[in-house]
Specification:
about 130 residues; single chain; alpha+beta; five-stranded antiparallel sheet
């Protein structure tokens, strides 16, 4: 019976700790939504980036290409909505809207550099007759 009392005491402690954990999680969510999220939106929405991309095991510099990104919106601290386009080393073109997070973004570039690359991307699509 002593073990049963100890078990019930542990369950009581667990309930208290879970209640405290829910309170702390609520405080974190409040901070993220009221303070951190507006700061991230002000800092990143509309910003443009580029990063080197490649397929696995690149061997030569020409195995890399630029992948361009623009932050469209931010729905959560770890939920950046990103427009991304690229033309791989074989000429395959892709444009995607995707979810990512801050560390996914490449190096910051100017809006003009992004627009210039996007303009070239669109011209190549037109050249291919699409």
């Amino acid at each position: 019976m002593n073990n049963m009392n100890h078990y019930k005491d542990l369950q009581g402690e667990e309930e208290v700790l879970n209640k405290e954990l829910r309170r702390v999680r609520g405080d974190i969510e409040d901070y993220e939504s009221k303070q951190l999220l507006p700061q991230l939106r002000a800092q990143y929405v509309g910003m443009c980036f580029k990063s080197r991309n490649s397929y696995s095991c690149p061997e030569e510099p020409e195995d890399y290409w630029w992948c361009y990104q623009k932050v469209i919106s931010i729905d959560g601290v770890y939920d950046f909505n990103i427009l991304q386009f690229q033309t791989d080393k074989y000429g395959k073109m892709s444009i995607d809207e995707m979810s990512g997070y801050e560390s996914y973004l490449g190096e910051s570039i100017s809006h003009d550099e992004f627009q210039s690359a996007f303009s070239d991307f669109k011209k190549e699509i037109e050249r291919k007759g699409l």
